Amino acid sequence: MSEYVLQTNNLGISFGGLKAVQNVNLAIKEHQIYGLIGPNGAGKTTIFNLLTGVYMPTYGDFSLCGESLVGLSQEKINHHGIARTFQNIRLFNNMTVVRNVMVGLAHQPEYKCDLLSSILHLPRHRKTEYAMRERAKEILKIFDLYDERNAIACNLPYGKQRKLEIARALATKPKLILLDEPAAGMNPNETAELMDTIRFIRDSFNVTVLLIEHDMKFVSGLCDELTVLNFGTVLAQGKTDEVLKNPEVIKAYIGG
Amino acid sequence: MASIFDRMKKVRWDHYIDYILIAVFALVLTVLSMTGNLKNSSAIIVEKIAISMILAVSLSLVVGFLGELSLGHAGFMCVGAYIGGKLSIALVAAMGNTVFAVIISMLVGGLCAAACGFLVGLPALRLKGDYLAIVTLAFGEIVKVIFQQSATFGGNLGLGTPRYDKRSFFIIELITVIITLAAVQNLIRSKHGRAITAIRDNEIAAKATGINVTGYKLAAFMISSFFAGVAGVLFSFSNSTIQATKFGYNYSIEILVIIVLGGMGSLRGSLISAALITLLNEKLRTILTGDLAVMKDLVYAVVLIAVVIYNNAPALKSFRDKYNLRRVFDKIRNPKQDHAFVRDDDAAWDRVPTKIKMDELLSVDIVPGNEFTPDKPSKGGQ
To answer: I want to staple B80 with a disulfide (CB 3.0 to 4.6 A). Which of A133, A193, B109, B168 is the partner?
Structure first.
């Protein structure tokens, strides 16, 4: 076992001639909250897409707890322990809140139930359904969504939809969770609350967090370490306060 | 005694009402048939309704719940009808025209159709977009031509098949309807069904949540094809000859019209509209004879367009809300509840509107702008 949860080794991708991301070396320790920042178009979400198998890396590789995951399909990568949320919320809009979370629970071994026993509604099916619903409710309680558990997901207010997306990702029991702009569109109160939630889930779910965010207050208050991207390459890396003082970083963000 | 009563109270009768209704219907017809009060023509109509119901419920799984458009459902039925029909000739010769011959033919015909579903679905369902519609459309036509040209299956004249006893075959069919409905409904109400509807709601998120998208799409498509094949075998037993021309594009569209009219993603609606459309079809057949027979297809078009307008026109919105049957039933059951929220944890499995909008399918742009976009959060104010 390596001491890092996520390690990328010269990770990069090019679309045709365009090198969207190149030579990214991340090393994220267990239990860390790690920030990925950079101006628009720097390739942050592209890195997320690489890490979750949406894109195949052109160069380099990445590994989770020492196990290389390059070339696996998206669902396989999720089964290995990387879960994510999306920049534009992607919930299962026509399903109830509790069922959204239950979808996330489905592939775990303790809720295994083959297709035939589901079609015949055998006792095994009832047992797993019950267990999944109870577990989903527990997760919803953590996110303060329990009262809305039977609401249709798309009827939730925006902040709660964000929370639900995180809850669903956590239901897949990840080792590493990737949050793509979790605080986007939230007011300062909600942002502060979200910071507490993220710290709480890191401790109670025992996950490592990698997040993309533009809100500097949020990043500096939450992240242990940062990587700054600019034009697809790493501009700076290290402890949060040091990185944010780096003149190169300030230049890239403020310009001039 | 009390405990049984309490248990009866807890049973969600609305989950079982469809089965009960069909069973009661079958029982009444059986009594009528045994006392000799059932006309042969009525029995044949019931047989046709049952076949439509099986087709509608199975197609609903793919179109309404998986969110993929299949235009070749009649093609799978054709496979089932010919394979099952051919087999039934041998079986009936060997063991007589019994229920067992029907059951074995149904299983074999269904499995062959499911195998075709696998072959068609494997390449098409790996792709995004409307490829399944194109491939199934082609499949339906190809299968038709193959059976039409094959001498083993009777060629242009069609295949002569043993006809099951008219006065009791509808019982077998209605039982098959119940089995089909139970299988599809149970599937949808399970974690696998949740995965299928998750794929329909958001495929990208489904993948990221660890759902094997291609696998589930293929499984749902194969189950749907299986029951289409079973319906085909039943068709072969309720007709003395089967001709490939019957399973053309129009028939696939007819099944699609049934589930659109019933409300996609609603199995109960599919059952009701299967009965209605089949009855309408029979009535029109007797009214429109000779040159007017072409007009029958026109009726489907009118029905489709009417449903699209009814479901989308902004002017009808208040009417729709007021006379939404589901809401009316909810109100009767529990007048005080807020109906934006669902009643109970395991309720509202049928509450899964489909992502395929029929106006997109028909290229009719009725709604100016997009009045309903649940994806976007409201940006301040009202």
So the answer is: B109
Pair A178, A246 in one domain: yes
Domains in chain B: how many in total? 1
Please indicate if any CB of chain A lies within 8 Å of the CB of B15: no
Residue B40's CB is within 10 A of a number of other CB atoms, namely: 10
Query: Interface pTM (ipTM) of the complex?
Result: 0.90
pLDDT of residue B328: 66
- Look up residue B309 and give its two tokens: 């307008």
Residue A231 has pLDDT above 50, yes or no: yes
What is the tens place of the pLDDT at every residue in B112-153?
Answer: 999 999 999 999 888 777 889 999 999 999 999 999 998 888
Residue from the list A92, A111, A150 with its beta carbon closest to the beta carbon of B202: A92
CB-based contact, B380 to chain A, within 8 Å: no
Size of interface A-B (CB pairs under 8 A): 130
pLDDT value, residue A97: 93
| CATH code, A23 | 3.40.50.300
Contact B208 A86 (CB under 8 A): yes
Contact A95 B342 (CB under 8 A): no
* Contact state of B207 with A74 under an 8 Å Cβ cutoff: yes
A63 and A109: one domain?
Answer: no
The structure's pTM equals: 0.87
Q: What strands lie across the sheet with A176-180, from one edge to the other?
A: A82-84, A176-180, A208-212, A33-37, A225-230, A233-239
Backbone φ and ψ for A199, nearest 5 degrees, come out as -60, -40
- Domain stop point among A147, A171, A195: A171
Q: Which domain holds residue B209?
A: 17-249
**Cβ–Cβ below 8 Å for B190 and A118:** yes
User: What is the rounded distance in angstroms from the CA atom of residue A63 to the CA atom of residue B125?
Assistant: 30
Q: Provide the domain limits for residue A144.
A: 93-171
| B330 lies within 8 A of chain A by CB | no
Total domain count, chain A: 2
- Would the CB atoms of B352 and A90 count as touching at under 8 Å? no
Q: Are A172 and B195 inside 8 Å of each other by CB? A: no
